[in-house]
Here is the input.
Amino acid sequence: MRRIEIFDTTLRDGEQSPGVALNAEEKLQIAHQLGKLGVNVLEAGFPIASPGDFAGVRRIAQEVRNVSVAALARANAKDIECAWEAISEGESPRIHTFIATSPIHMRYKLQKSPEEVLEQAVQAVRLAKSKVSDIEFSAEDASRSDVDFLAKVFSGVIQAGATVLNIPDTVGYATPEEYAAFLRAIMEHTKGIEKVKVSVHCHNDLGLAVANSLAAVGAGVHQLECTVNGIGERAGNAALEELVMALHTRKDQFKAETSIVTSEIARTSQLVSRLTGMMIQHNKAIVGKNAFAHESGIHQDGMLKDRSTYEIMSPSIIGVDAESIVLGKHSGRHAVQQRLTDLGLELDESRFEELFSRFKLLADRKREVTTADLFSLVEEQKEKT
Ligand code: KIV
Ligand code: ZN
Here is the structure.
């Protein structure tokens, strides 16, 4: 089994979700929970962005232990000095510096030539290295960059001291096979690549962030960047819980594992949702309200016979102790009978049949028939007899 490191950027890229602004206290609360979750690196923020972000990053670096704390900086001296000031008291600090390398970004955004970008990247990494040993360099919009140019930039920053190279799909444009081939080409052409860790950071504009990250695992990368609940700019980032549970559930295929304490996933997801105000869609994989719920009679019957029929992972793995059988209009006799038995409400056959007909009438009016509803149905029956 290969060990894949989880770089969580909920507090930096995730916080860049439109409408989200966490204060230092809230950031710290999430950071402590990310520590319990077992992430390897926690990107605490972008200190130059605002005094509040600087304060939040600083407190996290001072207080959160047993996890590497990273701060983001553009590839310039002012950002790097500021990032370092924010994380210098950390147990295991990392400066994460970046510059765009795609023709589109270099021409329109940076208005710099490729040679100038190469020079700026190398200078930035050199400066960061004079402060701390762990340096991550990201080539923004890497997936739309030229392979030879990118390999040249990466070879330069490795020589300048970078320890992690990140190859982001910044605009979520890549597709899994193409991205994996691109990563392999970059790794083949970069000098000194064996000395560093390779990372990916995928955005979800085409709904492919998780698929692209998993394809990257197949291509041999060492680190995955992601956010809790997949929050982030535009359509968000690769969702931590989906990546972790895909690797965990399909170990046979990926032959890779993470250090994530999966039983902390649901708690972390709820905390992030509550503090950011970003609701989780009901059918969201792993952490959605319906992710482990079964409503149809056929599925419920299968589940009651053997859970493996319709459940590829147990909700308890992510720390959920939920009732997975939801009683509604699609439920069959078996599920209703089982729930009554679980509630200690044993009925003979004729009473059960009468109750089941009233259950169906109620289920047509209500989306979900609850335990309280079942007790009422039984009570009504008692009153009639
Ligand atoms: O999406 C991106 O390219 C980024 C970088 C700063 C890593 O967030
Ligand atoms: Zn990003």
About this structure: The two ends are 64 Å apart (CA to CA). Strands lie at 2-3, 5-8, 41-45, 68-74, 93-100, 135-140, 164-169, 197-202, 223-226, 256-257. DSSP finds 15 helices and ten strands in the chain.
